[in-house]
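Title: Prediction job returns without error message
Component: structure pipeline
Severity: low
Priority: P3
Assignee: unassigned

Description:
Job completed but the reporter wants confirmation the result is attached to the right record. Sequence as submitted:
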Amino acid sequence: MKSNRFYNILIKFISIFENILLAIIKAYLNTLVGQGFYLKVVNYAVDKLWDEVVNPFMKIAAVRAGYSYDVKQGKILIEKLKLAEDANDQATYDTTIDDILS
């Protein structure tokens, strides 16, 4: 029973302390110095979010788009190569091989 009473007192103290702390923070953020601090915190959070989340996803998207493009271009070149080989067209065959190797 004694520990339950201590727990209730502790919860009330934490609630009061939290309300006081929030009031102090709100008052501080309404000052010019507090707004500068707030701006720095927001900029830091956005920079971290950009570096840790957005930038890697953009890199992954670019790699996947490049891969998809390369696969499609490869299929087109192989088709040209097969058609040139079937038609015995040496000039088209050589041009396609040059495109593949370059």
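Comment from assignee: result matches the submitted record. DSSP finds three helices and no strands in the chain.
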